[in-house]
Amino acid sequence: MLVDLHAMYRLYYGDLSHNYIMGRPSEEQKKLSDAFVEISYTLIDEMQPGAKIGEIARKALRVAEKHGYGSNVLFGFGHGIGGVGNESYPLILDMQPWSDMELEPNMVEIAAVVLNKPGVGGMRLEAPVWIRENGNEVLPKTPIEPDVIEI
Q: What is the pTM of this model?
């Protein structure tokens, strides 16, 4: 199960998602979850000031491919956040005009991972990341790891 929240304050958006596994996860679901978590942390770790957007996307995709999910992950790994009508720019993907753009201090980007495996499940990360002078800060305090709710 996925909870995806889009709050708005004075026409400025927020974006946050969290994943839940309902019941005891199968081995395939555990594998998918482990890959999702590693892709997500790689993405966030790479979102640093001066990092090129295309390289960030390539590194996240390589982790998905390492786990055998290269064709199951959405090719975009994030988007901007802001006022209505201007919330998607810039996108974190490896194509022009975004590939050579660099993240700069005080930007807020949504780290996004969409990983879906038919017959197994799907997971999505959307978390605002504040690019700081020396690193970044994930703004929500929700964990990246999916919660398991045994029923």
A: 0.92
